[in-house]
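input
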Amino acid sequence: MSGTNGSVAAAAPDDEYEILCDDVGSFLRRYTSEDGATVATDTELDGSTAYTVTGAVVRCDAGQVLTANPLIDSTLQRQTGAGNVTIAAGARSVTLVVYAGSPTLAIGAAAPVTVTAGTSLTWGVDRGGDTGEQLQDAFVFVGVAGSDFLVSSTREV
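output
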């Protein structure tokens, strides 16, 4: 609106949320600011059930030691026809795209499963470093006559 100036004040309090951990597990802390005062309220992760803190309160990932800018090794292999692609245990991500045929996939000691053309599958973790996450099992992809598939992976080095 031309020629109008001024400000609008909202009467509602400001709420901020943070997931924290104590000796028992994770919980939700809500910080409410109104009229210059801030009040912290702890609840279960549902946001409504009251929660009583047990022990020290920390950020849930505070105990994890991360490697600054870890180096990530990447692989990409296309398999056409009969043949194997193996991704050793400890990868951070594995992706399969099947273009044609019906290769099989075995994860760890599990029985192989047939994967059909048009399928795309991905497994991954998001935290690395000295105590970071990794995929615990090896992945074995076996192509048969008529197979055409692509396997990519990443691994922290």
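quick obs: The first strand starts at residue 14 and ends at 21.
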